[in-house]
Automatic annotation (TrEMBL):
Family membership noted in the UniProt record: Belongs to the CtsR family.
Domain CtsR C-terminal dimerization intervals: 80-149
Keyword Amino-acid biosynthesis: no
Domain CtsR N-terminal HTH, residue spans: 5-76
Protein's name according to its UniProt entry: Transcriptional regulator CtsR
UniProtKB keywords: DNA-binding, Repressor, Stress response, Transcription, Transcription regulation
Origin species: Vagococcus elongatus
Keyword Transcription listed: yes
Lineage: Bacteria, Bacillati, Bacillota, Bacilli, Lactobacillales
Transmembrane segments: none
Length: 158
């Protein structure tokens, strides 16, 4: 039997709501979600900050305070060039392994790279290849993925 974490359950719930809406956008209240899942509001923040990122194909807008909300929108891009540009803009100076894998997953989902290419690239950005103890690990990973995206954008324009 599979034991899902609270974060997994919250993520699945939010994604199921997103799948049901035609606009591909939802608006939630942090406190209401916390009450629904009997957890602290910071758990909701954690899920949103780690599982609904730009690299994973989502934009998040939040407003704090009494009338505060969190708005999650799935980003649907129409061309390879839009996907590559969007992903390139989403990568800063650092990129965690999880976010790197999410970028590669998006490239695969949009048929920009093959499954084999994605698997090879995952091994290149892995902890084993870059070094978990390397203090600039996330910087190296970001540079690798940025170079990949730039190259793919160059090929797309030819």
């Amino acid at each position: 039997m599979s034991h899902q974490s609270m974060s997994d359950l919250i993520e699945q719930y939010l994604k199921s709501i997103l799948n049901e809406t035609e606009e591909e956008i939802i608006e939630i209240r942090r406190s209401e979600m916390a009450d629904l899942f009997s957890c602290v509001p910071s758990q909701i923040n954690y899920v949103i900050n780690t599982r609904f990122t730009l690299a994973q194909g989502y934009t998040v807008e939040s407003k704090r305070g009494g009338g505060g909300y969190i708005r999650i929108q799935r980003v649907e891009l129409n061309s390879h060039d839009e996907v590559l540009s969007y992903l390139r803009k989403s990568i800063g100076d650092q990129l965690t392994y999880k976010d790197g894998v999410a970028v590669l997953q998006q490239l695969y989902n949009y048929d920009i790279i093959s499954k084999r290419e994605a698997e090879l690239l995952v091994s290149i950005i892995s902890y084993e290849a870059i070094g978990k103890q390397n203090p600039s690990e996330d910087n190296v990973r970001a540079a690798i993925i940025r170079a990949l995206l730039d190259r793919l954008r160059y090929e797309e324009k030819r």
